[in-house]
Amino acid sequence: MPELPEVEALAQHLREHGVGRTVTRVDVASLSVLKTVTPPWTELHGRTVTAAGRHGKFLDVDCDGLHLVIHLARAGWLRWADTMSAAPPRPGGKGPLALRVHLGPPGQGPGFDLTEAGTKKGLAVWIVRDPAQVPGIAALGPDALAMTRDEFAAVLAGRSERLKTVLTTQKIMSGVGNAYSDEILHLAKLSPYATAGKLSTQAVDDLYGALRTILTDAVTRSVGQHAATLKGEKRSGLRVHNRTGMPCPVCGDTVREVSFADKAFQYCPTCQTGGKPLADRRLSRLLK
């Protein structure tokens, strides 16, 4: 799933290559991806891209005051091309293409596709005059990279949830997902199951420092990359996430996993949980 660093990199790419260009045509291959009806997507035609940014993990393309807001969800992606195919995609096709934006004469100019792999669809697009009209944006907590240390501590104070939950709940703080939360907790040497509101002052300092380090380093690596290489760049910088069974690069212990219904997180027992493996409910059920 694209998280804050990848979405920031995509926004930067659009600022460099899309701002100043005119939307000449929008092709909708999957109507289900559109979460708004009014204004229609055709109202983007003829508008100039004036800015591109993000709100948490939402990508925001400003077209003369009309915003194309994109949430890539778990398997969505933005694919830039210097020359887009002029042939409109077939609506309702079974391929990954959901929406295409032409930023020049079709077949001659650049643009981008929004695609989504797999059968579980979550990619979403809104066309709004104010990004706050998107319910997910209106509900966002403070941006993970915009908080001061004291603001971060205030977010954690009194919370009874586990750290993993707090870091990944967008209404609490925005921008961090499953992968980078694993990396942040590993660098901070904290258990994913630690209670957020019970951290010592030193642990809060360590967690805030880890959050800043992991995210800023990832943004630095990602910005300037072509969209096609961003996923590989993200994977190359991960030390524990998706590395179950591999040695921890810090201590050499085996990276462990805890699985849930549709996702999993990874951690190092030696670095994070005092050498004690966390209970994996999926494995426990299999052993009964």
Automatic annotation (TrEMBL):
Cofactors: Zn(2+)
FPG-type domain span: 239-273
GO molecular function: 8-oxo-7,8-dihydroguanine DNA N-glycosylase activity; damaged DNA binding; DNA-(apurinic or apyrimidinic site) endonuclease activity; lyase activity; zinc ion binding
Reactions performed catalytically: Hydrolysis of DNA containing ring-opened 7-methylguanine residues, releasing 2,6-diamino-4-hydroxy-5-(N-methyl)formamidopyrimidine
Keywords: DNA damage, DNA repair, DNA-binding, Endonuclease, Glycosidase, Hydrolase, Lyase, Metal-binding, Multifunctional enzyme, Nuclease, Zinc, Zinc-finger
SMART domains with a match to the protein in the record: Fapy_DNA_glyco, H2TH
Family: Belongs to the FPG family.
Name the UniProt record assigns to this protein: Endonuclease VIII
Species this protein is from: Actinophytocola xinjiangensis
